[in-house]
Design brief:
68% of the residues lie in helices and 1% in strands. The protein has 352 residues and is mainly alpha-helical. The two termini are 44 Å apart. This is Protein BPS1, chloroplastic.
């Protein structure tokens, strides 16, 4: 796994697989080239939209929601591409299918881990709501309960999620399995493999950032070295460098989290905690009320951001799961695949 001091690692650790899957002399027709160029142009547009306008947007829950949306769209774009290519199931080698099924399982495991962490964050939100409720009264008993709730929140937010802790090894295995097996001498296969490569790069990047943000450590942060032969490579490198660099800067400054909304909550808690403990005396009722109000706003923003992200992660899980189901269904029927090798919708149909 890449560390801050490690050199960027290649997404394909054993060299460029297109040298193996695209035999010499295989050229793309103008039609296939147009299909590939359109796909990669769409992918690049998605990458551009994920480039934060400022470092303050790294890493916000809204950015993470947009990133997960981009993943869902890109995986569904593969489904559309396969429809355009009309690749029959007979062109799918057994090893290729096995690799896809293995990758899809890893993506499902990652989605489950992310969902469990978002659920854990929502549990923490309940503790913050209890704090705000107790702060509605000035009685010493209610302040004691508010302090107790904040203690619970601080312990909860600093604890580790075992499922997130396992994401690093899953990501390493996902990268290691990206050396795709050979495809029969097929120009269509070449187009599909190059498209899949681009989507995999985006997938690993996004999942790496999520795992890093949720784990509170850069140990899950991956730097991918993408060759400049791909039209979208410069845009991706710019995105990756900006996001990964900012994440490392934040952790090096001692922040407990790189999540903007969670950091805002923690800042309000640090400000309010000594006041309700009585460590810091304040006779300014208005000032105290503003501090409580600040915690209320940051808590609400955090809760809303988590709820939106939960929906997108669940949506990506369904994209991957339904694509896997579509592939298995078509394999059983022996029909032509019109599904998504990386995940598609349940309405994928067989094409004769």
């Amino acid at each position: 796994m890449s560390r801050p001091q490690d050199p960027p690692r290649s997404f394909f650790p054993f060299g460029n697989p297109f040298r193996m899957i695209s035999p010499k002399g295989t050229t793309l027709s103008p039609q296939l080239l147009a299909v590939l160029c359109a796909f990669e142009a769409t992918l690049e547009e998605k990458l551009k939209k994920l480039i934060p306008k400022s470092k303050d947007e790294v890493v916000s829950l809204s950015w993470m929601t947009s990133a997960m949306q981009a993943l869902c769209e890109s995986h569904n774009d593969i489904k559309t591409l396969m429809t355009d290519l009309e690749l029959p199931v007979t062109d799918w080698e057994e090893k290729w299918i096995d690799v896809y099924l293995d990758i899809s399982v890893k993506l499902l495991d990652i989605c489950i881990a992310f969902s469990s962490e978002l659920s854990r964050l929502n549990q923490g939100h309940l503790l913050l709501q209890c704090t705000l409720h107790h702060l509605g009264s000035s009685s010493s008993d209610q302040l004691f309960r508010a302090c107790s709730s904040l203690d619970g929140w601080r312990q909860h937010v600093s604890s580790k999620n075992p499922r997130i802790e396992k994401c690093g090894s899953i990501l390493d295995n996902l990268v290691g399995s990206s050396d795709l097996p050979k495809v029969k001498k097929s120009a269509k296969g070449k187009v599909l493999m190059q498209a899949i490569y681009g989507v995999k790069v985006l997938t690993v990047f996004v999942c790496s950032v999520f795992a890093t943000a949720f784990s509170g450590s850069t140990k899950n942060l991956i730097d991918m070295d993408v060759a400049d032969v791909y039209s979208w490579a410069p845009t991706f490198k710019g995105l990756q460098n900006l996001v990964n660099e900012e994440i490392r800067v934040r952790f090096s400054s001692g922040r407990i989290t790189v999540l903007n909304e969670l950091e805002a909550v923690d800042s309000s808690v640090r400000e309010l905690y000594p006041i309700i403990q009585g460590v810091v005396e304040t006779t300014e009722t208005e000032s105290h009320a503003k501090t409580v109000e600040k915690l209320g706003r940051s808590t609400e923003n955090f809760s809303q951001g988590v709820d939106l992200l939960v929906k997108e992660v669940d949506g990506f899980f369904q994209v991957v799961l339904s694509g896997r189901d579509a592939l298995l269904s078509n394999l059983r029927s022996g029909a032509t695949i019109n599904g998504d090798i990386l995940g598609g919708k349940r309405d994928a149909q067989a094409v004769n």
